Amino acid sequence: MFAFLAEQAAEHAEETAEHVPLLVKFVNQYLGEYAYAFEMKYTYPRWQTLLAKFGTTPEAAFGVYSPENAIPWYTVMFVIACILSVIVIWILRGQLSEDEPGHGQQTLEVSVLAVRGMLEDIVGPHGLQYFPVVMTFAVLIMISNLMGFFPLFISPTSATSVTFALGLASFLYYNYIGIKENGIFGHLKHFAGPIWWIAPLIFVIELISNLIRPFTLGIRLFANMFSDEKVLDTIAHLAPGKTYWVVPVLLMPLSLFVAFIQTFVFVLLSQLYISEVSHPPHDAHHAHEEDGMEIIAPVLT
Fold it and tell me: Average pLDDT for residues 191-210, to the nearest whole number?
């Protein structure tokens, strides 16, 4: 099974390498030698030892090692997505004004209020303290999904390495919240449920369910974004003279819808996972009822 997945990954890597963006070639031209030397000295021997136990090799799993592809395209694209996320937010903010907000500020405020509203409804008023991380997920994934619409770019979320990393980040974050608020034993105890006589069975089921969440988050995001690009590419090459430009343009609204939906699903599931492990403190709950105070998340300050 592992060998089959490794073979499929290698085929996908070779297929992608055929149309590597110019930006990736440029980065590898200047930094590829250093990255290749680092891989050969540190990471390659470890992968070689590990994969040998499964009857395969690093080349079969990741493709041929060379200075030309030492820095993978998805790494370059994801770094660019991080930079673009900061730039887009800065542009949309513009000159903040309470009296006459610009279109960019209004767009950003609508996005912020939407995510805040979801957090408050799903997690509770105390959940607004997690707004910065959740909003970072939303902006970063959205920018990554939309990068495939522009020349010289490929959506980094069409690579499993990126989507699994995002899924793992969400997994670590909500477990960190659970351990921080409930302690390690309290966090593990909630896996067992309230019924003591089936607690061992429920604990095992819930533990397995939680451990596979990074993979389900990553596979869902990757499969939808990768399949969307493959469908567009396949249709575009049915009749290159006629379908190469017209059909992809007509299908762009569908691709835009997929990009938004996959961002929404990832953020929604991350908030649901947080709601399972985070509960309002009793003192804070009473203080909220007595004083009418609200927890305010940082918005545009």
Answer: 89
